[in-house]
Amino acid sequence: MTVKVQAEPFDYGSECTRFALISRGAGAVVTFCGLVRDEGGTLTGMEIEHYPGMTERAIEAIVSRAKDRWSLTHAMVIHRYGPLAPGEMIMMVATAARHRADAFAAAEYLMDFLKSRAPFWKKERTAQGAAWVEAKDEDEDALNRW
Predict the structure, then answer these.
(1) pTM strictly above 0.85
(2) 43 contacts: CB under 8 Å, gap ≥ 6
(3) Domain 2-131 is in which class?
(4) Using CA atoms, how far apart are residues 76 and 19, in angstroms rounded to an integer?
(5) CB count in 10 Å sphere of residue 87
(6) What angle separates helix 54-69 from helix 100-117, to the nearest 10 degrees?
């Protein structure tokens, strides 16, 4: 299990390749990369805050639950914090399993729980000012399937 919480950008291609190479015994690798989204075309940036130590422990617990539930050979989460621009990579999830169904299900589980349960606080900035991002009902609803 690998959990990285970092301010620095990451190279998605290199991380995918490295993950696949260390996922011995797996027959499937699933990856996902989340980007800073500018839905209305007005976002100038996003600031992500977290509590070091607490955030890593919370993500490790989420990954551990996924590994217990599905037959994963390896899992990785990278999540950035600090100032981010629209279009930048914000996070990455990778799962490896003997079979694709477990890898896909575990990746979706991780994405859903990271979105709603990982202790990050996001502030969006526009020309009109800044506002904290509030939880969305659809994100909470996504957790109900698990």
Answers:
(1) yes
(2) 36, 37, 86, 124, 125, 126
(3) alpha beta
(4) 8
(5) 11
(6) 150
Residue-level pLDDT at 55: 97
Closest CA to 42 of 132, 128, 136, 133: 128
Domain boundaries, given as residue ranges, for the chain: 2-131
- DSSP single-letter state for residue 21: H
Q: Specify burial of residue 31 (Cβ count, 10 A radius: 0-12, 13-18, 19+).
A: middle
d(CA 63, CA 25): 19
Q: H or E stretch including 95? A: strand 89-97
92-115 pLDDT tens trace: 999 999 999 999 999 999 999 999
CA distances, 113 to each of 22, 92, 134 (Å): 24, 13, 16
Residue 81's φ and ψ, nearest 5 degrees, are -140, 170
With beta carbons less than 8 A apart as the criterion, state whether 49 and 81 touch: yes
**% of the chain at pLDDT higher than 90:** 85
Count of alpha carbons within 13 angstroms of residue 122, beta-carbon side: 18
